[in-house]
Design a protein that fits this description.
Elements: H1 2-16, H2 22-42, E1 51-54, E2 57-61, E3 68-70, E4 77-79, E5 85-88, E6 94-96, H3 108-114, E7 152-153, E8 160-161, E9 169-171, H4 174-180, E10 186-188, H5 190-199, H6 207-210, H7 219-224
Antiparallel strand pairs: 1-2, 2-5, 3-4, 5-6, 7-8, 9-10
């Protein structure tokens, strides 16, 4: 009852605060935490997988033993037959049980919940020097020569990442689609890949405001309009 009361109070606070303000975003994150705690109390204990909540991730212990996955934390193979592993139900971040205490990346779904917007500049590169020659996510040293670690650019953010945070995953980049009608998948970081996957069905792009000229060149858009 106390949790439900706190959730309702949090909802009222969110509605009362200025839209898109930092205080409102913080309140939304708090609401997510409260709902996760309530769900944990509802989940039956013995028949369900173990649950771990870390940095807004909701990790479930996996039962599958035959699947071979890659750990998002240490970038090595998860051997289901002999190792325990967890998957976040929000962003599908996977890792060994031994890597759980080392997880430092917050769940992307929380960002989608209170900051549902795209980067609309095409690969906005600022250079490795602006990153102090460090990975944009984990801050490990990187360079274009691959010493000590290869710097890989994310086509969505324009930033450089180490090989542990950027696995050369491919994704359609919204800015290229909007400005160039280009749907060719580009290499993006793991974090960007998850964010784009969770955002893909959200109606957040006002195309007639962003690029109204596109309607003159793409017949399908005219039909949709």
């Amino acid at each position: 009852p106390q949790l439900r009361q706190a959730i309702e109070e949090c909802k009222r606070v969110i509605l009362a605060l200025p839209e898109h303000s930092e205080r409102q975003k913080d309140a939304v994150v708090r609401l997510i935490h409260l709902r996760l705690k309530l769900q944990e109390l509802k989940d039956p204990g013995e028949d369900e997988p173990n649950i771990r909540v870390i940095l807004e991730h909701r990790f479930y212990k996996e039962k599958s033993k035959s699947v071979k996955q890659m750990c998002d934390k240490c970038s090595t193979i998860i051997w289901g037959l002999i190792q325990t592993w967890y998957t976040c139900t929000g962003c599908y971040y996977r890792c060994h049980s031994k890597c759980l205490p080392l997880v430092s990346k917050a769940c992307v779904r929380a960002k989608v919940s209170h900051q549902a917007e795209y980067q609309l500049s095409i690969c906005p590169e600022s250079g490795l020097d602006s990153q102090d020659y460090r990975c944009a996510e984990c801050r490990a040293p990187v360079s274009l020569r691959g010493v000590p670690s290869e710097a890989r650019q994310c086509d969505y953010t324009g930033l450089y990442y180490c090989s542990s945070c950027h696995w050369n995953d491919l994704a359609v980049v919204p800015a290229r689609a909007i400005h160039n009608w280009d749907f060719e998948p580009r290499k993006v970081s793991r974090c960007s890949m998850r964010y784009l996957a969770l955002m893909v069905s959200r109606p957040v792009l006002k195309l007639r405001e962003i690029n109204p000229l596109l309607f003159n060149y793409v017949e399908e858009l005219v039909e949709i309009r």
